[in-house]
Task: structure prediction
Amino acid sequence: MSNFRIEAARPKPEKPLADKNVDRAFIGGIVRDFYGRVRKDERLGPIFARHIAGDWEPHLEKMTDFWCSVILKTGEYRGRPVPAHMKLKEVREEDFAIWLGLFRQTVEERCSPETAAVFVERSERIAKSLQLAMFFTLGTAAKENPDHGRK
Result:
């Protein structure tokens, strides 16, 4: 019985990316298109404008490194996304739905359905991780599950 629990808790293996045309230039195009949409968004645009003043290119390059690491497993990204996002006090939990919607729209327009599905699946996992880091509190968990932690 305990072996079943251990197996069930393991993360699902990631789907390999079948599209051999996805390279750094392709991912850079997605990043630039996506952040163009973010900058125009009435909710997210002002948040990003406050934190990325002036030259966007360093941020776009960092995000291209990030997505190359996520999709191509290049290991190029050396940042720490959770501490960076924890500083953004004006971000609300519901902002992640906007971010994910814009990202999904971008990859669905730029990628084959199979490739878009890989980007979307990984973006949803990343968003969930950031949301947990930014908004999870024991108080919230206790309210949602009053028996949490009781034997």
In short: Helices lie at 2-9, 24-40, 44-51, 57-72, 81-86, 95-110, 113-135, 138-144. The chain has eight helices and no strands. The longest helix spans residues 113-135.
